[in-house]
Amino acid sequence: MKKGEGMPNQELVHNLLAEYVDQREKGTEPKQALHLLARIQPDLPIEERQQLFQMIRAWEQRNQEPAPPQPSQDEVQTCPLCGKDNPASEKYCYSCGQLLGVSLSTRILESEEPDHATFGAMSKLLIMVRGHAQKPINVSIGDVPVLIGRSVPGSATQPDIDLTPYNAESLGVSRIHAAIQRASQTLTIVDKGSSNHTYINGEKVHPHEVRVIHDGDEIRFARLTTIFIFKREVRRL
């Protein structure tokens, strides 16, 4: 076996763990936070998945209240990942760390709480491109529109967020596909008349229609899927 073969991608696992912790510290429920990871990296290999679950379980045990008393032995639930039986009240599999009752491929619609739309002056945007969790895009949003698309040498107008490294051209992304902008306490997006359209959580955005983006929304540019995550900075006294 070659050196490193079969070893987990440590950078990818730690990036996903950091995103999970950030979501939990913002008050997101465990299942919703895990579902967000699934949308960011849907095809996580089994070895990395097991390591990620074990790290998540360890973090939860360090930071959450003790679990309620264990039920009787005949009340069990089977782990969907490793097949081990666990007490019905257990949130995580004792064997592999899998969050019980949800898998990384499960699609759960997140509730849209009012504060999920808040994007203030201190907020920053993190764009996670599906299949490229190790290469997130950090964006600072000011008072002017930020153009999203793919760069073309010699073009008079270039996008501020260039999706070319993410196979944008082959996935149908237009040169100037969309624009995002902070409006009051929200973040908005407008499709700039792209050839293959923009979608929010699967819903088509009409050309030049202004839409509000929520934290955790899935934004698809043609066939290139991203997740928009709000990073809210806290002023320290």
Overview of this protein structure:
- It contains three helices and 13 strands; from the N terminus they run H-H-H-E-E-E-E-E-E-E-E-E-E-E-E-E.
- It is of the alpha+beta class and 237 residues long.
- The protein folds into two domains: 78 residues, no CATH class; 118 residues, Tumour Suppressor Smad4, CATH 2.60.200.
Itemize the secondary structure elements and their pairings.
Elements: H1 10-25, H2 30-40, H3 46-63, E1 76-78, E2 85-87, E3 123-129, E4 137-139, E5 146-149, E6 161-162, E7 176-183, E8 186-191, E9 198-200, E10 203-205, E11 210-213, E12 218-221, E13 224-232
Parallel strand pairs: 5-6
Antiparallel strand pairs: 1-2, 3-4, 3-13, 5-7, 7-8, 8-11, 9-10, 9-12, 12-13
Helix pairs in contact: 1-2, 1-3
Key descriptive features of the protein:
237 residues, alpha+beta, Tumour Suppressor Smad4, 2 domains, six-stranded antiparallel β-sheet, five-stranded mixed β-sheet, 3 helices, disordered N terminus
Could you give a short description of this structure?
With 237 residues, the chain is an alpha+beta fold. It has helices spanning 10-25, 30-40, 46-63; strands at residues 76-78, 85-87, 123-129, 137-139, 146-149, 161-162, 176-183, 186-191, 198-200, 203-205, 210-213, 218-221, 224-232.
